[in-house]
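FW: tagging you since you asked about this chain on Friday. Here's the raw sequence from the shared folder, copied in full. Didn't touch anything.
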Amino acid sequence: MPITAARVALSSTYAFEGGPDAARGAVRKHLLRTGLHLVDDGPAEVTATGGSQLVVRALGVWFAVPEAYPRQVRVTFTATAGGTRVHAAFEETLGFAYLDERSRRNYQAAFRTWIDGLGTALGQQQMAS
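HL: got it, structure written out here
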């Protein structure tokens, strides 16, 4: 499988006071609320995808709703002395296409909204990534 670099990506790390199972439960709820679909649900990592290639290619990033943007998120859980470290990394998965600055800003804003919502779902403050 070829490895490709995402052109738009955003990540953030949060401290969660509970254990990894509780953190994973909060992340799963957030995934469902935001229309992402679980691809892999391991004990230390959750991967989910979302969006629609068809909608974005038909309308373009400028006109499609952010929920339609093809994207993938990888969330990892690391047990710490005080709870769980939760790291989320978002990437666009549009594939072969040109993303101008406005399209990049649209993607970044959508990713920021999702990641901020994740922090709210975890009830925690953002840590340095």
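FW: The mean pLDDT is 87.
HL: agreed, and The first helix runs from residue 20 to 33.
FW: great, closing this out.
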